[in-house]
Amino acid sequence: MNIILANPRGFCAGVKRAISIVENALKIYKKTIYVKHELVHNQYVINELRKKGVIFVEKISQIPDNSVVVFSAHGVSKKIVKKAIKKKLIILNATCPLVTKVHKEVSACSKKGIETILIGHKGHPEVEGTIGQYENKNGKIYLVESISDVDNLTVKNTEKLNFVTQTTLSISQTKNIISSLKKKFPKITGPFKEDICYATTNRQKAVHYLSKISDIIFVIGSNNSSNSNRLTELGKELGVFTILINSFRDIKKIWLKNVNCIGITAGASAPEILVKEVVEYLKNIGANKYIEMIKVKEKKFFRIPKKLLIIKKD
Ligand code: 0CM
Ligand code: SF4
């Protein structure tokens, strides 16, 4: 059995920034750090931060007044920001800048009274945060998840309409939904392609390569992680037995019967340590040493807020 590691895989710039914000906040504020929602959708990351005293809450009302709150990488609605201000919370915003970009677009449309269509998954926190940027009572933001949602959609004014997308969607499915939107509403405006982020795009491309050589693909990630689920879905669509696993502990030996090549990738919120553990486990049960797929260097880096910078002394 050979092991092939996808590249790129794992942590993206937005996740690294979110984790640095919380870790630096722990050092600077020296008091309990509350995080609205899971900072990133990964059980291992959340458990590690819990061990350091971080408290994760779903509602702002669960946080004592004057505390420090971090908004998760997926972003929050304007209503949530107002609630946090009302409680006099110190706000540290770990929303990924690429999500904030979409927020700004929706907010601008809301101000101009341009109705907006969001392509995304109902109930996902990023979708809730993006919908929550549209505050104009005379207009609306509509959520579509599929082509049939587009078919059933009616808007107030087909002449003034914009679309945006969730950042972690399937590239191919989104392309098809956008085509049907453009067919139904020829005047619709929107991003050049979609708002799917660089990390999601690159990890999906890597799964395409991986699928050509793998008999099985392990996607390391948690089950509430949208981008990790999209990688799993893609592997399956490409005809490879693909499974989302939290860690090596989820692997069943029976899956590896008659397997020559094991492909491994990791979602944007899954740390490299989990990849290393999977590789070690597979080597222990007889796999050869791993081969890394041609490396694509991701250069994206997002700065953390200035007030959280820790100056290192020599
Ligand atoms: O959005 P998704 O569920 O993929 O979130 P994640 O925490 O797994 O990945 C990073 C992000 C964002 C936004
Ligand atoms: Fe940002 Fe994309 Fe990472 Fe989400 S997956 S945090 S949008 S870079």
UniProtKB/TrEMBL annotation:
Cofactor detail note: Binds 1 [4Fe-4S] cluster per subunit.
Sites where the protein binds (2E)-4-hydroxy-3-methylbut-2-enyl diphosphate: H41, H74, H124, T167, S225, S226, N227, S269
Protein residues bound to dimethylallyl diphosphate: H41, H74, H124, S225, S226, N227, S269
Catalysed reaction, written as an equation: isopentenyl diphosphate + 2 oxidized [2Fe-2S]-[ferredoxin] + H2O = (2E)-4-hydroxy-3-methylbut-2-enyl diphosphate + 2 reduced [2Fe-2S]-[ferredoxin] + 2 H(+); dimethylallyl diphosphate + 2 oxidized [2Fe-2S]-[ferredoxin] + H2O = (2E)-4-hydroxy-3-methylbut-2-enyl diphosphate + 2 reduced [2Fe-2S]-[ferredoxin] + 2 H(+)
EC id: 1.17.7.4
Highest taxon of source: Bacteria
Residue positions binding isopentenyl diphosphate: H41, H74, H124, S225, S226, N227, S269
GO BP terms in the entry: dimethylallyl diphosphate biosynthetic process; isopentenyl diphosphate biosynthetic process, methylerythritol 4-phosphate pathway; terpenoid biosynthetic process
UniProt similarity note: Belongs to the IspH family.
NCBIfam families: ispH_lytB, PRK01045.1-2, PRK01045.1-4
Listed name of the protein: 4-hydroxy-3-methylbut-2-enyl diphosphate reductase
Species of origin: Buchnera aphidicola
Gene expressing this chain: ispH
